[in-house]
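Backbones bend. We report:
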Amino acid sequence: MREKVLWLVLLAVACGSRLWDLGARVMTHDESLHAFYSLELLRRGQYIHDPTYHGPLLYHLNSLAFFLFGVTDATARLVPVLMGLGLIGVLWFYRSWLGSRGALFAAALCTISPTLLFYSRHARNDIYIAFFALLWILGAFRYLEDRRRRWLYLLTVGMALSFITKEVSFILGSARK
């Protein structure tokens, strides 16, 4: 019970630090492009893939956020916030390898990391890749343990979402002998 409370407190701190004053900072060049093309997708209902701007997932999720919550700088950064919170939360499922304390410590480090905090509040796809990589790894490790199909599905979903987010996913999936 105490462990669950600590995780909830940690997630609450992460949520507060990522949502606090989310729209106050001026958008960077990349953020403004991502927000613009997401808005165009919402307004016109069309998306044309250009590898210069990476995969379509960011634009579709940001368009959904704009549709649901309105078009603001904060809304443009809302999905990265959720991905950052997901990255911290998914570490709960790493307890069998890291131990309860190790997983909580890893989640705490992710919560206070200035870099992860920045990318969890930045309308780019870097935090998406980090989150999907953790899903991908979780699915692979769990499948190797018990060979249940559901872990293959998780691995596949993590991979697929990663690949439609950014091309660096190919680096994650390449293996050398």
User: Anything to note?
Assistant: DSSP finds ten helices and no strands in the chain.
